[in-house]
Amino acid sequence: MTPNQQLQPLTSKELDYIADCFSNEAMLAKHCAATAAASQNPAIQQTLLGFVKRHEQHMDMLVNSLQSHSNIAPTQPQ
User: CA distances (Å), 67 to each of 48, 52, 78, in order?
Assistant: First the structure.
């Protein structure tokens, strides 16, 4: 972000989108973990566990984005 740009409060539509993204990332991580646990192939297990880690990183990025907007969020619903 450049010095001239300031964060704007997120709209309810943007918050819904972030919530959906978080839910999808959590579901994908869970499915990858379950498939890795069921797999007998170590290479596939390793790949799937890498996907789990990536989906968890995506969830962390979404949470961090929400936290960075929390100080400018309206206190009353709009």
Answer: 29, 23, 19
Measure the CA–CA gap between 69 and 10, rounded to whole angstroms: 7
Dihedral sign of CA atoms 74, 75, 77, 78 in order: negative
70: left (phi over 0), alpha (psi -120 to 50) or beta: alpha
Radius of gyration of the CA atoms of the chain, in A: 17
| Separation between Cα atoms, residue 65 and residue 78, nearest integer Å | 20
Question: For residue range 23-47, what is the model confidence (pLDDT) as tens digits?
Answer: 999 999 999 999 999 999 999 999 9
**Single-letter amino acid code for the residue at 61:** M
Name the pTM for this structure. 0.82
